[in-house]
């Protein structure tokens, strides 16, 4: 598309000055690394000097091709225990499928910070004691550092290098950080898993929202504090609090898109760049399907494509979920199913009817672009959610963990997708009914196509939005005028609880006085009556 390229060229020309940018990209989870890499690519495409620093917390193997811009310098930081990390199997988190413990917000707030933060500890500790690499970074005279607010060591690196940092988030939002940038509470605006949205939401929904957001807050706070503590230990003297480091920036970049996401009150400091990972032009010209897939799609009129992403494994799905899915396959013999299934499993294959094809690898973009694929069944990682939104394809979202339930609800509210509880995978009948409805009822496609149109025509291109705000923030790295001052007050002043309290008391007192006066008047009147008689 010409306008997009033109925009990029114009941006390059209009650059006030090229900056020397350090992107801190810790390797611990594929979707995080992917988003940060894509961000780095875009910034480098716009003419800045970008260096990506990658400390390895786990030996993720598929991160190699993520940095595409050839001008980017990559510094991989392999810790001393890297050989051990290599020996470990890539975690596939089978427990996330159906463990009620893993899915419990209270438990996860106690276990997750240490379990996940613990993964970061060894490499980060070594990094902060490695004067050689720290000096090397310092000598490169970076203007600014970009880091995600999840693995937060980057902010301490920026502090050591005495350069400003700009926080970003590969997910839609993180309330404890959003609030440091002036965003009010999302209660009621962003429904939590299992909650209805206002005005349908009732008391139990609101209670559920409060419960889940509270423990989500607690989890992320404890995760940051855990890292804060071991970084302080590694450096060996008191360090600034993580929140104070993160909140110096004039902007906070998030992977939300205002036209896809729930409408929440926000401020100009929070920059929504969701959609930067999408290349509409490339999506319109996907690779042609191989003959094998052409044949599969020709088998029946409708095809459904199932993929639970690359972290969780379909073959590790609990057996009762598999049984429900198989029942659905058998109940819909007129539909062909392609299921991304990571293992050759003859025994399992034998349990399946003829209309199912298990594939270890699938050409996802080409399948999503094909009209004959009527429905995409997905776990709803944010990457897939964006991709689905931008293909205009109906989707059955079956969230498994993390931010996936929120992503599912976010997409479902546009009417082209349905959020489906993973525990209901075991219910073959319900699953059949849902899939049949989504394949045959055209309203899902109409709504999904409408969303695609909206996203393609959103007033400000997400990449442009990113670059304009980033360049502004690099120019004015401490500018905080867009953060409301009310943000620095406590809960009472923030919500005017003192005034509400005093006015309530005054009203009660007033009513009491009026009541007393009326009482006296009544007595006087009845006294007079008695006298007259
Ligand atoms: C960017 O890199 C080029 C080539 O290495 C160098 O000449 C230029 O000075 C760098 N610019 C900044 C702002 O560091
Ligand atoms: C979550 O934390 C943020 C920031 O500390 C705060 O503004 C918000 O009220 C908290 N929400 C709940 C439900 O605890």
Give the key terms.
533 residues, alpha/beta, Rossmann fold, 3 domains, 7-stranded parallel beta sheet, 6-stranded parallel beta sheet, 13 strands, 11% strand, binds 2-acetamido-2-deoxy-beta-D-glucopyranose, glycosyltransferase, transmembrane
Q: What do you see in this structure?
A:
The structure is a single chain. With 533 residues, the protein is α/β, with parallel strands linked by helices. It has three domains: 14-97 and 120-184 and 238-277 and 461-485, Glycogen Phosphorylase B (Rossmann fold), CATH 3.40.50; 280-456, Rossmann fold (3-Layer(aba) Sandwich), CATH 3.40.50.2000; 494-532. 48% of the residues lie in helices and 11% in strands. It has helices at 2-14, 30-45, 82-87, 105-129, 131-139, 153-161, 175-178, 203-235, 242-246, 280-284, 291-299, 319-331, 346-351, 364-369, 382-389, 404-412, 428-440, 443-456, 462-475, 491-494, 497-532; strands spanning 20-24, 49-55, 73-77, 144-148, 165-169, 252-254, 270-272, 302-307, 335-340, 356-359, 373-378, 395-397, 417-419. The protein has a seven-stranded parallel β-sheet with strand order 3-2-1-4-5-6-7. Strand 1 (20-24), helix 2 and strand 2 (49-55) form a beta-alpha-beta unit. Helix 4 runs parallel beside helix 8 and helix 12 (319-331) crosses helix 17. The longest helix is centred in the C-terminal third of the chain and has 36 residues, at 497-532. The protein is globular. The mean pLDDT is 93. The chain binds 2-acetamido-2-deoxy-beta-D-glucopyranose (2 copies). One 2-acetamido-2-deoxy-beta-D-glucopyranose (NAG) binds at residues 18-20, 49. One 2-acetamido-2-deoxy-beta-D-glucopyranose binds at residues 18-20, 49.
